[in-house]
Amino acid sequence: FPPYTNPATPPATPPYKPPASPPQPTPSLSPFLPPSPSLPPPLPPPLPSPSPPTAPPPVLPPTPPPSLPPSRWPSMPPSTLPSLPPSSLPSMPPSVCPLTPPSAPPLSPPSTPSTLSLPLAPPLLPPLPCDAKLDDLPLVTRDENQYAFMNSTGGFSTGGFGVIDQTSELATRVLGDSTVWYRRTFKWPLNRATRIRAVLGTGTVARVQQVRVMYQLLDQFNNTRVMNDSPPSVHYKGGSIPCSQPSLDSGIGECFGELSRTVFSTSGQVALSLHWPDLDTVVLPSFASVNVQQEPQWSRAGGWNMPQTAIGENVAFGISLPYEDVFIPASSTRARVAVKVHLKTHMAEDSDAERQVAVGKLKLVFPPNECLMSHETYRNTGDFATWEVMSQLPVGAYGLLFRNGAASGYSVLMATIELLCTAGMHLIGVETTSYADSNGLSFDPNMHYATSVGREENYRTQARVYVKATAEHTHGFAYPSDGRAYLNNFARLGQAVPSTTIQLDSVGDSPDVGRSVNIASYSFTPLETDRGSVLLTVKHNGISDVATINVRHPMAIQLDADDTFLSAVGCANSMYQSTQLQLRVDGLDMTELSSFRSSHPMVAEVIGSKVIGRQAGHAVIWSYDYTAAINITVDDSIVVPELMARILTSLSGPDAREQTFDSEDDVGYLYTLTRYANGDLYAVSASELHVAVISTDKVSSARQGSRFLISVVQDALSGSSCTDELLRVSLQTCNNSIVAVEPPLELQLPTPIGVRAFMLSQTTIAPPGSFARSAALSSRAPEKGAVSQVLIMMSEGADKDMRGDGRVSLNSSEPDCVAVVANLSLSSSAGFTYRAVHGGRCTSAIVTATFTLGTWVRQATATVYIARPVSVDVSASIYPSCGMATTLYTLGCADPPTRQRVSYTSSYMLKSDEAGYSQAGSISLAHPEVSIYRSNLLVVSGVIHEGVKAGSSLFEVRLCGERANATVAISDQPLSLSSIIPSVDSTVITSTRIRIQATFSGQGLSCSYDDLQVRTALGMSIQDVALFEIESAFSSILSVSDGGDVQALASHWAKAAVLVRNKCSSREASQQLTLFSNTKAAPGELDLGETTLAPLQASETLSVKLWF
Q1: Residue 288 contacts residue 276 (beta carbons within 8 Å)
Q2: Fewest beta carbons less than 10 Å away: which of 182, 449, 999, 1086?
Q3: Are strands 707-712 and 727-731 parallel, antiparallel or unpaired?
Q4: In terms of Cα–Cα distance, which of 1037, 1036, 1045, 1035 is closest to 1015?
């Protein structure tokens, strides 16, 4: 990763550099670049061997480069201090937090390795101030989309290269890290349109046609992707035509509309002007003229037979043809010609019937070789219900017959017929074949009257229509496919050569068709020799246009390095410094776009844009195309780096750097850089670092990619690098030869002060295999539960949620009855926090939670209760429902006897020692966990039973050690069929069924059942209840079965009767039911269409529906 260095260019050998005074704050260079941070003062350089003090060599002020690269720091003013022997160094107690590091003597000029003196420093620096010093972290910002690059002022610019309507994404990272901390976007705007051009498409128009104009907007650089506030407008003497907004890529828009009717009073030309950018500015005066076709007199008068005396015949058909030019579509050989057929009736007559035409025939005649019949687009079905096409007509004729209606008027539109005609002038007419008025008076003129109009001024027996071929492409505009008329050619930097596509849009002479898009295209890839404006022509079908593309390429390429003198690193064997290359292209830093190569990789190896010293010597570093170079010297003179470590938790902007550790959940990232006496800064990868955690009870570290993740350990208390040694960071390769550093770190962690809540999700549970846990219950008690709320009050006022936290341990007072997990961290894997144990005998247990956060220990308790049954019941009810069952009797007079049926249900109630707990429900008797014992009972279906014989019966339910039963007496005594109530539908068409409601009484009971229950639920048939018959007078009308099914044999004008009698009572009179028999009419029979009641019905007014 690139180092940050002072911009001064170092000499051939390492210069003498005294310790720099603290730098002054540097203002922000750009809204897109973080401000340059202030560096901490450098550490004392290595001391020379003891010798008499010598005067230092003169220090030259740094020569500023032509521009300040983004990866360099502003120069710091030098200062001169006398050289001191090692014994004069001040002592540095390790437990003190000084405001600034102590001063040290200046560094002597480098000597050979054999005479170099290593620093006499303690193994650990004094703790840094409690300030996190995050402003020391150098930030790097780049445009991820590579549209903009940093210029000499620190801002982002596109320079002389083209970028319009594209977005730069400025991503900011800490030097040496690939993680993007925050992003900002900037949209490079469109240029405003500065010029316009326009062409006329339609050469000739009639009043009903539209004028079509195509225009194109461009900016000063020929881009067609432009900013435009409002579209232009086309003006002429007498009016204007609006224009649509232009296309974003092509800048092309259209203007279309009809001219004012007044300009068509005579034929001639109308001059057109273009107004833009506002209505008052004429930018293209008289840029084109359109020919106008005079509107025929018949059209100016209002249309066919206007005025109403234009047609002299009393009754006649006529046609109106388009008087304008009809254009053949570009992909066809024929045009669609709409022929409108009109009718004039005898309006001079004195009665409506005489003025009307009730039936008629017409025949359209057209040139058979030039025109074909296509289809009808309109028929006057509003006046005439029936239309037919006349058959056996010759080619070139099309006839229609209409009837079942009437119409009258001076100009009645009867039909629109579409013909397909080739190019040329065509004669078309219509024959008035025959017609009749509403009195039935008919006429057969078979005449072609002078009633047809088209291009002529007046009426003729045949009108003319002109069909012409469309010139699909009369003018064209070329444009880059993306609207950008530039190519940024960075091939000299190793980038792929860009290309563009030129497209052509056109407009034709048809007033009905808009512009054609992308009718032709031309791909262009510039050559190395292409510079500046390149004219590109695209052609299609006789039209062409030229687009101007500006090929932009680098002009001045300069290669720099942060440091051209790479020294050996004093703490490592065969390790040398590295430096960051910078490729400035026309004043912009485009290092990321290029690649580089070394003349001697064994001396100085290039990796990406970084040059790494490998052994002493010289190497030349070349740019991609060898047009720029820089000399690199690798020397065995030793320099000793100083470490700078910082911990960052949040970075959301250049002025929003934070280190916040006020929760155990907070994490930070350790960034470490090395700094050398010459001011160079280098990012250090995590793989090169050794991070020692001193206060393991407060923080932890873990390598994560190119950085270390710093976390707060559980139970940690507040701490500070000012008062505690928390972390120690050193280089792995340097052992103790370079002092380790402690990154500034402040832990502002809250402390626990009390337990807020300890609540369980289920306070009453039941063990597996118990009655309360049986799946046969409609609602059973849960077996296990979890902690729903466990909160600790913290010193800063917030509550800490301890769910799932291993520092909360659990204990049960009755472990054989209620089991718990050892701590809350095990709840997820165990699937429970606490649960009832099979075979447990307790009724409750106390769960104790112990909270252990460091030395802070507190306890909280909650009680868990065990559910158990308090009652189990069995109930017996007469089936179908007729109260509770104590005794079951026989029903009616059925032979063999039919016994009443009984239905059993079971219920339960649970309780626990928890106040207010109660749970009740039903038991599913069909569940496999339920056992049933029966005596003197026969199962009918499910829980429905009937007695086997007279005597006592027993039904007992057994479940998980609990049992309950019900006894019912079985009797041979009958309940008499005390009454039946029959009913039937009012009408039978084919068949219907008589419904019986039966009541059985006696022994203190009275049970009534509907027809469905009598037939399906009592165990008897309808024949055991009722007898059915038809009165003899209606035997030919109806029939009835012994099951009460009535069949309709014939329709009858009045009601027919059915007799129903109680099967068990000979003394009870028969009941008569009456209904209508209304059968469906057979073929050849009459029917009034009613499906209910009598087949013939009438009130005061008879409305008849008749089918035949």
Answers
A1: no
A2: 1086
A3: unpaired
A4: 1045
Q: Count Cβ atoms below 10 Å from residue 860 Cβ, excluding itself.
A: 18
Phi, psi of 608 (to 5 degrees): 65, -120
> Are the C-beta atoms of 291 and 269 separated by less than 8 Å?
yes
End-to-end Cα separation, the chain, in angstroms: 100
656 vs 73, higher pLDDT: 656
- Count of CB atoms within 10 A of residue 102's CB? 13
Nearest to residue 124, comparing CAs of 529, 799, 694? 694
pLDDT digits (tens, 9 = 90+) for 773-791: 999 999 999 999 999 999 9
Nearest to 474 by CA among 621, 334, 288: 288
Do 1076 and 1052 form a contact (C-beta atoms < 8 A)?
A: yes
Of the spans 3-17, 671-685, 856-870, 1042-1056, which averages the highest pLDDT? 856-870
Look up residue 106 and give its two tokens: 């200046």
Given 3-state DSSP classes, what are the helix, strand and coil percentages for the chain, each rounded to the nearest 5?
Answer: 5, 45, 50
Q: How far apart are CA 372 and CA 369, in angstroms?
A: 8
pLDDT tens for 320-375 read: 999 999 999 998 999 999 999 999 999 999 999 999 999 999 999 999 999 999 99
User: Which of 568, 639, 579, 561 has the alpha carbon at shortest distance from 3?
Assistant: 579
- Long-range contacts of residues 121-125, Cβ cutoff 8 Å, at least 24 apart: 121/44, 121/739, 122/92, 122/94, 122/739, 123/736, 123/739, 123/740, 124/94, 124/725, 124/728, 124/739, 124/740, 124/742, 125/43, 125/92, 125/101, 125/739, 125/740, 125/741, 125/742
Predicted TM-score (pTM) of this structure: 0.63
Q: How far is 726 from 729, CA to CA, in rounded Å?
A: 10
Read out DSSP for 544-559?
EEEEEEEEE----EEE
Taking CA atoms, 419 is separated from 329, 511, 836, 1064, in Å, by 14, 20, 91, 87
Rounded-to-integer distance, Cα 491 and Cα 70, Å: 24
The dihedral formed by the CA atoms of 1098, 1103, 1105 and 1108, expressed in degrees to the nearest 10: 90
On whether the CB atoms of residues 376 and 389 are closer than 8 A, the answer is no
